[in-house]
Amino acid sequence: MKIGIFCSANSQIDPDFFTLTRQLGEWMGQHQHTLVYGGTDLGLMDCIAHAVADNGGRVVGVVPSLLLKNEHANPIDHERYLCTTLSERKQLMTQHSDVFIALPGGIGTLDEVFSVAGEGTLAYHDKRVIMYSMKGFWDQLESLFCHLQQQGFLRGDYRQRIAFAHNLDEIISYLNSGD
């Protein structure tokens, strides 16, 4: 399976997020899954790439030229796609991934999640995003989605596009069930 990962490139975050990210990457590698990610050597992006590669998985980086110019492209990548804009990066990641997992992140991560979910809502694809709510990180976003659903602002059940998981076992269950 090709698993797209959206996550922070910041290293100044809760160390537990690195531990949990490493565990996910180890599982991915051990099960021969391919990582498709933003391709940088920073923060959780670097952590997941090394964990996947160190455990036998394939690593595909999608790197904007600006990051390449700033020497932040991760040298661990087995394969690399270069792009010029963040929109192009999202398009390439969507094209090369079967499913997505969003780890803790900021505006860029949210942008990626909403782009994939929005395109899915319009039937451009049927790919799901699993929000890995490490230590409750995405719980407030889940509450917001429940509120939007209750108020009638979401067509259908948002859980068909965005699922929330609080541990690796829940992620594995989602990936294995296809639900």
What does this structure look like?
This protein is α/β, with parallel strands linked by helices. The protein is 45% helix and 18% strand. It is built from seven helices and seven strands. A seven-stranded parallel sheet has the order 4-3-2-1-5-6-7, sandwiched between helices. Helix 1 packs parallel to helix 2. The chain is globular, with a radius of gyration of 15 Å. The mean pLDDT is 93.
Summarize the structure.
The protein is built from 7 helices and 7 strands. The protein has 179 residues and is of the alpha/beta class.
Q: What general form does the structure show?
A: globular
Alpha-beta content class = alpha/beta
Gyration radius over CA: 15 Å
The residue-averaged pLDDT reads 93
Helix content: 40-55%
Spell out the helices and strands N to C. Answer: EHEHEHEHEHEHEH
**DSSP, total strands:** 7
Portion in strands: 15-25%
Provide a count of the helices.
Answer: 7
User: How is the quaternary structure best described?
Assistant: single chain
Low-confidence parts lasting 5 or more residues at pLDDT below 50?
Answer: none
What about the largest sheet? 7 strands, parallel
Distance between the terminal alpha carbons, to the nearest Å? Answer: 15 Å
Widest sheet, order of strands: 4-3-2-1-5-6-7
